[in-house]
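Researcher: Next entry in the queue.
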Amino acid sequence: MTECKKQILVVEDHPIFRLGLRELINQEPDMMVCGEAKDAHTAWHAVQTLHPDLVIADITLEDGDGIEFTKQIKRHYRELPVLILSMHDELLYAERALRAGARGYIMKQEAMESVVTAARKVLAGKIYLNERMNDHILANLSISRQDRDLAPMERLTDRELEVFTLIGQGLNTRDIASRLNISVKTIGTYRERIKVKLGLKNAIELLRHAVSWSRGARADSEETAL
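Model: Structure for this entry, 226 residues:
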């Protein structure tokens, strides 16, 4: 009797990259894409209705990010494994993803070569990280997060990094509050904390820094998709 294929839900906002993942996964004899989504809202509905064996989710989504989406999954489906995709530097995001409950992290630059290997490893109950990131985490095991010499961006909490990213995408305080379903006052507090942690003097510097960050990430994403 043929063993049932593992069902994979792909959550990715870039249609070309999403297509590439689907074709790659569907070529495998032991797994298939059971559904796709470009935003967290659609993805959450798919999780509830399709009951996938694995979720592969991008960090950058149209209505949120993969870190918060992973946290949402883990609150309701503790055993459902999540593999995070990102064009962002793994040294900044991989540990955040694992702390959120993800079982692996893979850079988009290496995804087409390694995503099947990563998926199988995560489905087997193991953690997937590339060698560079694995060595980095092991090197930091004996050092507390408080004692480590963190880069400025690493000092941001998950929520602060999410707010910073949305500022870079051109959203104002009210738009961000609506997107994240929290108060305008709370967003203002996050903005002030971000400025302090990144050593930025005012709102103009914050906007410039966030836009520069966002453009760099978007350029990397477009280059990877091509």
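Model: The chain has two domains: 6-139, 152-225.
Researcher: Noted, moving on.
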